[in-house]
Request: fold
Amino acid sequence: MERVAIVGASMTRFGQRDAWVRELLAEAGEAALADAGIVGDDLDHLYVSNMASGEFEGQTGVPNALAHDLAATPAYTARIDQTSSSGGAGVYAAWQSVASGASELTMLVGGEKMTHRSTSEATDVIASLTHPVEYKHGVTLPSFAGLTARLYLEEYDAPRESLGKVAVKNHKNGVDNPHAQFRKEVDLETVLESPVVADPLRLYDFCPITDGSAALVFCPESVAEEYAPDGEYAVITGIGGATDTHVVHERADPTTMGGVVDSAEIAYDMAGIAPDDVDVAELHDMFTILEFLQSEDLGFFEKGEGWRAVEEGVTDRDGDLPINTSGGLKSKGHPLGASGVAQVYEIVEQVTGNAGPRQVDAETGLACNVGGFGNCVTTAILEGSQ
Amino acid sequence: MSDTDADAEATGEASDEPTFEAAAYADGSVSYPPHPVGPGGAERVGTVDLREHEARVVTWTTSTATPPGVREPNTLAIVEFEMGEEYDGPPVRALGGVAVDPDDPDGGAFDVAVGDRVEPVYAEELREPGAGIREPESQAWDGFRFRPVG
Reply:
């Protein structure tokens, strides 16, 4: 199987944007093509990661629209929808297209336009992924987070403040990310006194609603230097995808995300590494509690110990295992289909030494993208070429 | 939900109450909601009425940012049913709203805590069909909330 390199990467500014989904996708796509030194016509495959452009905006058929806008026809196109992990699933599809030999040059663009909808409407679009027996009770993804956070805090005797410290850390990281929605630090007191959204979680435990897009260009590693003559490219050394139950309450342990465990096992095995070998990670902190769960289910920390790592500064940018140097979804924003692509963008920047003020000492990075409340997950491991 | 419905929910006096149907599978396991096949592909062989089982609160939350057509605030709980000593399948749980407390002057839900014993109580309409994004005819909108026992 051919090893796959990422030779072009871009992301738009995340936040409240005037642009609609087609324009956002084109903005990131055009920049990624330029970064790889190619044009749309060079692409064999073009994928778009997007959860709900039809529901949010009434615009469907976005891959074809993007192919036309970027003069990429007659490239094969497909839309990848895996709810909040559409981006990660798109990375998997793009990797697969090159690794299999079906494509010599693939671009993935993830994007979503959400902020024109009210919070209530956007929450309902996202909650539409739930089972009918959940949906009819008015469950939302934030309420799943509240249910799980209460259980985690009680089961592992973790202080409420530890969740707040995830928000503080990720907002601090976001200050140095020019693409982030929020580039402003928050203190623990502000987090803990913000309005309750899903008890025991408060406003600052949640990511915002966001517009934005990100893009990556993939090719066989054997030809990567044609597109990255400076030798600055990343290689996908491991990738895995897995699902957990659709109905959240049917999981054996509600504080364990089986899809994270299973996808990570596949990715570690493919890369031939262990969790201890990861130098930097981007985790799906749509809610602060998710950073604890993923950091444990990825094997970085023992079960029930993830909160201690945050308390002790292990996951700070200058800690032993920096997590969410981009600011995470919490600070950078969460335009659903773009998030998994933007996570890999940050890891590419880190392992190629291009992360600027966010740079950490990293040869190997990991991105974990979660759909639903752990319903479907993609974990990718990248290494720098040099 | 109408006041009449709220009264019925609070007193448990709803008439023609449907069952709280879970599925039983050939390997002895039970799931809610029912699935076409059970764990490991086990054949579905029958149903279990969860109204006949008490449950305990596993966890709960009160959501203050609710979608269109949903009560605000919305207290939700995941409960685990007591299936008897002979049952050795995976835990049987359900997510549901916490029932309205008739003694709460503001019409709020009962207070619950982790480990509390609760029982199912029927409500004809848990959320306003058609107010949210989901097609009203695509699913049922009645079901069971939970209230503390004793």
About this structure: Chain A touches chain B through 41 residues (CB under 8 Å). The CA atoms of residues 105 and 360 of chain A lie 30 Å apart. DSSP finds 15 helices and eleven strands in chain A.
